[in-house]
Amino acid sequence: MDKKPETELLVAHSSRGREASAYLSFIVDLYDELPAYSIFLHSNPEQWHNDLFGPQTSSILKSLRLEAVDAMGYLNLRCTNNPGCPTHINPNSPTQADIDNNDPRAKFPSIYKGIFGDEAQVPERIGGICCAQFAVSRARIWQRPKSDYIRMLNWIDEKSVPLVDDYGVGWVFETLWHIVFVTALTRDGSQGKIPDGVRVVQVNYDDDDSLVKALNGQQFLVITLGVRAPDGLHARITTAAGRAGVPYIMPNAYGYPISPEGVKDEDPYGNLVLDRIHDAQNGVSSSVTLPCGFWYEWSLATGEQWFGFTIKDRKVTFFDDGTRIITVSTWDQCGRALAALLSLPESGSTPALADFKNKEVRINSFRVSQRDMLDSLHRVLGTTDSDWDISYESVAKRLADGAEEFAKGVFTGMPKMLYGSVFLPSNKEADFAGTMELANDILGLPKEDLDEATKRAVDMVAAGWNPFAGV
Ligand SMILES: NC(=O)c1ccc[n+]([C@@H]2O[C@H](COP(=O)([O-])OP(=O)(O)OC[C@H]3O[C@@H](n4cnc5c(N)ncnc54)[C@H](OP(=O)(O)O)[C@@H]3O)[C@@H](O)[C@H]2O)c1
């Protein structure tokens, strides 16, 4: 930072932090009179990281579409997602080399809380397009109060001193600008916990205009409504997204591959999922569906009516003989898939997000049977079959019992039917990782260790895991 800036120019509040303090000082000084769009650039006319149109920044600016800034709110001027994506920093698990080298990566939890506030929940992984040149709309800047930007500047000037040098401050912000300007939608009165670094916009689901307003300027809407969300809410959200011009919607359909031809009239769950995908294709938006199979840790830990296991009592019900293989995914793999998908260029090269318009992004972690799960539990718990109460039940009986229980209002009849239908020998999609093309390689997803995932489920049970407490 120039220690003696020209007097007619804005002066940065801190001489630390390179472009970061200049950008933040501009926002703080002009917060109430910001132009509709702000474009933050490095000063030299040529930059190595200008990609599509050569090193001249002026060439990029000629190609920048303000419609794109309107749609995205925050738009990096670089398109190539390497370096930076999908993961640049693992704040909670730095490498030994980072610790030994006193790298900022080794101190990232303190850095993150200093920038986003002490209560901020530090993400497990951070990744974003590099190089700190971007356009941002006034509306997006205003989604944070001025006090947030002042806190960031104060961090640069004072609190960052024991953690990073001047260059390090610029590097830190380069990895975080997309988080500074990201937004999460939640409803009035939600009990959900959103990471504190993320700006939250409250919506009122009973007011369609409030939904449209909140969705304005968003490029990709991910819907993860819980099972207790009211019927019809999904369709109202997707309709509002269409009115707001959101180009992509990931509908609430995180299960198995599905097509209209494969769903029978008497299959209420299959028809519900088809409706949700159809809702997302609203004439303006395209759907991008993420079939990932059953969530492995979630389904193993939740109880007998799901994967047949009651881990704390060492009991398992094998469906038929327990050897039918199905496709499953861990939570981490689903999260990684979504992050990698959203790190792809929107279009113009391959792979691109647009390749998945109105299509499925099929991913997986494992192909496993209940027998494989029990063997993995043995390795994790140090048990053998003789320590477990193992019983057998035909899938046909399970489906019939589930339907009867559900008709009587017993909630757990539903998972019995849902999981039973996937373990049916006639289900052609249950082991889709063995029969259909996956997006794992396109998204750069890692191979995972089954026993590590099983251990997470065991730990969840030990910690009293129950997603349906109070139902
Ligand atoms: N593949 C699998 O094995 C598997 C397993 C479980 C779930 N899933 C899927 O994952 C998605 C999320 O399920 P989940 O169990 O994780 O959900 P959840 O945590 O129970 O709920 C997710 C969100 O839904 C909103 N919500 C909940 N109840 C609502 C209500 N009455 N009205 C309005 N909004 C409400 C809440 O958002 P706010 O409070 O922020 O508004 C909540 O944070 C669903 O699509 C589900 O089908 C898949």
Automatic annotation (TrEMBL):
MF terms (GO), sorted A to Z: oxidoreductase activity
Keywords: NADP, Oxidoreductase
Pfam families reported for this sequence: DUF3431
Superkingdom field: Eukaryota
Keyword Ion transport attached: no
Statement: the UniProt record of this protein carries the keyword NADP: yes
Residues passing through the membrane, by range: none
Gene3D superfamilies, A to Z: NAD(P)-binding Rossmann-like Domain (3.40.50.720)
Record-given protein name: NmrA-like domain-containing protein
Organism: Penicillium desertorum
